[in-house]
Amino acid sequence: MSADQIKDSTWREELNERFGWMGGRHGLSFECGGGWRFLLDDLLQRMAATLSDEERQDFQVTQIKEKLGTLRCHVFNGNDRVDALIDSAENASEITCDVCGGRGRLRNSGWLTVRCDEHVDYRG
Ligand SMILES: [Zn+2]
């Protein structure tokens, strides 16, 4: 992935165009690096697919963020299927570089991040 693609933040808008309805009135906010965009795209698609029309009415994604290096996704009115999808995405974030989406691991350089070898010291 090139530096331009890494800096590109239009992925947030793109995901909001497709899945913003899950975020309620203000849409979704993504407090994390762009390397996780594919992981989030996959998670949002799967959550949308597992919800019935009725379940969609009250469902809301309340927070998507990085915490202690890995992904955290919080929802309102979820269910077991949604929880399993979130668990799986959060686990995947533990081995996904949050800069480029490549294979990474949790690093501690004063703060925790999941990074590939190339982006160990990257600051966006
Ligand atoms: Zn990387």
TrEMBL record:
Protein name per UniProt: Uncharacterized protein
